[in-house]
Amino acid sequence: VQLQACGGGLVQAGGSLRLSCSASGSIFSFNAMAWYRQAPGKQCDLVADIAIGGGTNYADSVKGRFTISRDNVKKTVYLQMNSLKFEDTAVYYCNAHRLLPGGSRDYWGQGTLVTVSS
Fold first, then answer.
1. Are 115 and 89 in contact (CB under 8 A)?
2. What beta strand segments (E) does the chain contain?
3. Please, what's the largest Cα pairwise distance for the chain?
């Protein structure tokens, strides 16, 4: 399975971006898909995730501003980011999580850089 993330770029504070994560195979095989981010000098944190049933979960810092969604036909997960803040600057990574008998496995995309200018 390969995940291809794109959509990052430079945007002014208050602006919007939409990230996309395309999977090489069906995303039905994953129990959940998510976006993580890592700012310079900081740990990698969960931004948002979406379960196979459509349930979503967001980090407190992005609630009300970001929306995660999935298109099963296009095998793509999106992260719509509105009202961007300087502190949203980070490399954003797409993640796919699959439960297996006795464990689980995670797949990661290559990351896309989001830079928000203040």
1. yes
2. 3-6, 9-12, 17-23, 32-38, 44-51, 56-58, 66-71, 76-81, 90-100, 103-108, 112-117
3. 47
Q: Which amino acid is at 34?
A: A
Tokens of residue 54, six digits? 């459509």
**pLDDT confidence of 27, banded at 50, 70, 90?**
confident
**What does the alpha-carbon distance between residue 27 and residue 77 come to, in Å, rounded to a whole number?**
9
Paired strand residues for 113: 91
DSSP letter, residue 42: S
The encoded tokens of residue 96 equal 């796919």
Average pLDDT, the chain: 94
- Give the end-to-end CA distance of the chain in Å, rounded to a whole number: 37
Sign, CA torsion 34/3/37/8: negative
